[in-house]
Input
Amino acid sequence: MSERTPQRILLCDDDDTFRRRLKRSLSQLGLEVFEAANANEALEAQGDYKPDSAVVDLRMPGQSGLWLVRELRQRDPQLAVVVLTGFGSISTALEAVRAGAINYLTKPVSAECVLDSFSPDRVVAQSAMQMPSLAEVEAEYVQRVLSECDGNVTQSAKILGVHRRSLQRKLRS
Output
């Protein structure tokens, strides 16, 4: 991966306040920023403004951020995409990278951190971070299954292969 300093960034996030604040901060760093509140707006902005980089929220109403990453990269394979999320997990980070993202950041995040995330040095620094404990990985997996089951503990317990009451106790702790 070569060094990339973004000049024209497409910023797609459904949180208006966060998006506007991040746009203002990135603009103060000398970047040209184009806003989008959802995947459809982002695809329109990509066609209209031809950004060289994109910052995409993972969870948005309508099409997901992962879908958007694939679409953006299909339209412009050279586009550098960083995924932002308030719901960070190892599995979603891997999905984002598989979809074509060059980095994955959890909110809240500063404009400097976003800008740094386009640098290969930043990717190396993140990969050198301490590995999560087995308990953290297990808790993350349980939460992901619970989320996929829309909070249904009984269904989640069946998928996890544990008794419903055992799962309830684990969730309380």
